[in-house]
Amino acid sequence: MKRLFTVVFVLVLLATDILLLVGSFVASYKLRLEFEPRARITMPPLAAYEGIMLMLVVGVVLILFAARLYSPQRGVSKIDLFYSVVRWVTVGFLVSLGVSTLAFKGVDYPRWVLFYSWGISIVLLWVSRVLMNTLFSVLRTLGINQDRLLIVGAAESAHIIYDRIADWPGLGYTVVGFLEDDSTLIPPGDMPVLGPVSSLPQVVSEYRIDEVMFASPTITHKQILHLVHGCGKQKVNVKVFPDVFQIMSSEVGVTELGGLPMMTVRDVALRGWNLAIKRAMDLAFSAVALVLFSPILMLTALAIKVTSPGGPIFFAQTRVGLDGKPFELLKYRSMRPNAEQDSGPVWAKPGDNRTTFLGRFMRRYSFDELPQLINVLLGEMSLVGPRPERPYFVQQFSRMIPRYSERHREKAGMTGWAQVNGLRGNTSIEERTKYDLYYVENWSPLFDIKILLRTAFAVFKGSNAY
Predict the structure, then answer these.
(1) Which helix (DSSP H) or strand (DSSP E) does residue 431 occupy?
(2) Tens-digit pLDDT profile for residues 118-127
(3) DSSP assigned state of 427
């Protein structure tokens, strides 16, 4: 059944892509004639470009096959999918045009038709994949074409994986159970422990496991390789939930030191032109956003004053930013005045009676964070980066979490990679640190744009803040 679903997915997507690529070329040709009357005289008939059109279709399809864009995908965001389609359709067009230059000598290429076709193809192929992935996600939610999953480990990482699968039924996983050597660790969701870690090959065979996820910080890389080798004869996918070093080494490079090979584990990306690009993005976006959102900012300030007249509109709180230096983070006040007078520095919790009625709404849709655009404009923060914490918590976390202070090598952000992945507020600091380190090590302008877009979607749906 699973193989049938895969074959159907590939064939439907392939047929759809061919039709859309041909349609985009024909539509681009007609658009050129429609909007440029002069082209009706100078351009040859569409039949003259059939060879080029065929070459484009074949070239793009082959490149998409090579890039594995005809494989059913789980949990891939629409933004990542769009980036992939843009990248590989562009490569397909360039390769096809290069080959057609050699194959069709003397042909006058319709440059604007090709340009229009490139843009239309990207949009149509992306939309078709989003619709197909959505359809398969719905089918998986209904219990069709699901994979049986075994999680190795029952520590915090395993709980995070289980919770994510429970929250996203469209991923198509049925958690069969856990493997764990430590009897004091309890799996989430009343799931059974099917045996010790060493019994992996037997459990995979007995329970017909389709995929194994390693989520135990105590298992060494050597043990993982040994266990995977033991499952060699069984068709099972294996994934590993990364630790901090694995996240950092995702972009490992090899350099030399006087002829000695050295692995570069950390090479800060935000410097030179990269730093200038990020600052330019911060300045442009914050300035435009402050102007566009000014009516909302004024109405929100008025609403705070009317519904909670006993305190200020804004709430300034000391946070730790770049290089561990403190700064005053601005927020709309969402709690009653002097909320921490009795409790001291504590995180907000569900049903927190310190939060005002309007404050609960603002925190759910992140309205209380809008004044931080001023911090961004002043250069104290960035649009995207690790979320800043208070000095009291930074001192605690620096002692508890290895390399926690590495977060402060970049500017703090209004939003971050950890936040768009659900790690916001009173959540695991260790896991948030992993995501923050991954961001620091893998920064790019496109990565920032992706996080901003995901933040916008998350704000629209409402967050789990309280």
Answers:
(1) helix 429-441
(2) 999 999 999 9
(3) S
- Residue-level pLDDT at 189: 80
Q: Which residues of the chain have pLDDT under 70?
A: 1-2, 37, 39-41, 104-109, 243-272, 338-353, 425-427, 461-466
Directed axis angle between helix 156-167 and helix 429-441, to 10°? 80
Measured CA angle at 108 (ends 103, 114), to 5 deg = 90
Contact status, residue 270 vs residue 410, Cβ threshold 8 Å: yes
Read off the pLDDT of residues 4-19 as tens digits, 9 standing for 90 and up.
777 888 899 999 999 9
Instruction: Specify the DSSP class assigned to residue 368.
Output: G
The whole model's pTM is what?
A: 0.68
**Residue boundaries of the structural domains of the chain:** 2-141, 147-241, 273-461
Q: Other CB atoms closer than 10 Å to residue 269's CB: what's the count?
A: 17
Give the Cα separation of 91 and 53 in Å (integer): 16
Contacts of 391 (CB under 8 A, 6+ apart): 318, 319, 320, 326
Q: Where are the beta strands (DSSP E) in 345-402?
A: 382-384
Collect all residues with Cβ–Cβ distance below 8 Å to 85 and sequence separation of at least 6.
69, 122, 125, 126, 129
Q: How far apart are CA 183 and CA 275, in angstroms?
A: 49
How many DSSP H helices and E strands does the chain contain?
17, 11
Half-sphere exposure of 448 (CA within 13 A, CB side): 21
Provide CB contacts within 8 A for 91, sequence distance 6+. 63
- Strand intervals (E) in 68-163: 147-152
Strands (E) located in 41-153:
147-152
Query: Cβ distance 149 to 122 under 8 Å?
Result: no
Q: Report the alpha-carbon distance of residue 410 to residue 165 in Å, rounded.
A: 32
Which residue type sits at 285? F
Q: Which CATH number fits domain 147-241: 3.40.50.20, 2.40.50.1020, 3.40.50.2300, 3.10.310.70?
A: 3.40.50.20
Considering the chain, what percentage of its residues have pLDDT values greater than 70?
85
| SS3 category, 207 | coil
Cα dihedral sign for 74, 78, 79, 81? positive
Contact 407, 324 (CB under 8 A): no
* Under 8 Å between Cβ of 169 and 141: yes
Q: Yes or no: say if 215 and 241 are a contact pair by the CB < 8 Å rule.
A: yes
Q: Is 190 helix (H, G, I), strand (E, B) or coil?
A: helix
What tens digit of pLDDT does each residue of 360-375 get?
888 888 888 899 999 9
**Closest listed residue to residue 425, CA positions, set 350, 353, 374, 367:** 350
Rounded-to-integer distance, Cα 244 and Cα 222, Å: 17
Encoding tokens for residue 125? 């192929």
